[in-house]
Every structure is written in C-alpha cells, then in structure tokens.
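We modelled the chain as a single entity of 186 amino acids. Its sequence is:
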Amino acid sequence: MSTQPLQQVIAATRGVLAEVSADQLAQQTPCASWNVGELINHVIGAQNFFAAGLKGEAPSEDQPDWSAGDFLASYDAATAAALEAFSADGALEQMVKMPFGEMPGAAVMGLAMTDTFQHGWDLAKATNQSTDIAPELAAGILAQAKQSIPDAFRGDDGAAPFGAEQQCADGGCNADQLAAFLGRTV
C-alpha cells in the first residue's frame, strides 16, 4: 500500500489553507466548536498526533497556536512528519495503539486522510472558497467512509467523531457529499 492517497489529501487541503488569510481566523466553521484559527490548529495538531501514534509515542501535550504564525509552514512541517511516519518500513502493516483503540497502520492512514480532507472542506466552506475539492479523491474517501464509519461513531459535536448524516443536494460535488455523510450541513 502506498502513501500516495494521503499525499494527495495533504496537497488538496494545503491548497485550501494557502488561501486562508489572517483576517479570517475568527470566522465560524462548519465545526461548531472551532473557528478557522482553532480548526487550523486542529489540522496541524492532527498530523503530529498521527505521526506520534505510528511511532508508538504519546501525542505531545504542547499544542502551540500555529494559526498565530506562519500556519502554512507549520502545516508543511507537520504533514512531512506524518508522511515520513506513514512511509516507514512496515508502518501500514503494523498494529498501532491509538487513544481510541488498536488498529493497523493502514486504517490509521485512512483516518488521517478523512480527517485532513474533511477539515480542508470545512476551511474552504468557512472562508468562502470552492468546496469542489479533488473530485476523484473525494469520491474514494466517501466510498471508504461509507464502509468504515458505523452509526455508533455519530453524535453531537464534541461528543462523537461524526454528526448525523445530512442531506446533500442532488448533483452536489463529491466533497459536498462526503461532508454531508460526515454530518456537515452543506
């Protein structure tokens, strides 16, 4: 298995992040508990979280406010670390202990892809960018999500990883369909 899909997700979200300006950091996002700056911090922190998990390390408690500085450079550094961890020999085949359970590295990479891509969509939506992000990639993540996300993972914002599935308008782009499936109002 290759890290190529994760690399594509990272690039797609980077494209959105590159268009976020400092004056948008306080804007609300589709994630009710995070504004744009807080969501940027989550996206960057998540890369470090996944990299640490693959290395068998506990995630760092030190979470700086990356959005207050050059958040694009911080994203690049964090995603490089995540890609390095996922690319290590045997990383995708090994069992990885995460705070929410043990799973194969390939499954952790699937989580990283879904989280990174979806939050790229959230940032695009919050900053009035196009949400039609990487259509083929979005279709693949949606297909994977439909197979791997049970109803038990759905609930209120902050209490569960995903909200209740929402409706997406007929003809909605793949990224919008994914967002709706993951509980976002499109």
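As a brief sanity check on the tokenised model: DSSP finds six helices and two strands in the chain. Residues 4-130 form a domain with the Four Helix Bundle (Hemerythrin (Met), subunit A) fold (CATH 1.20.120.450).
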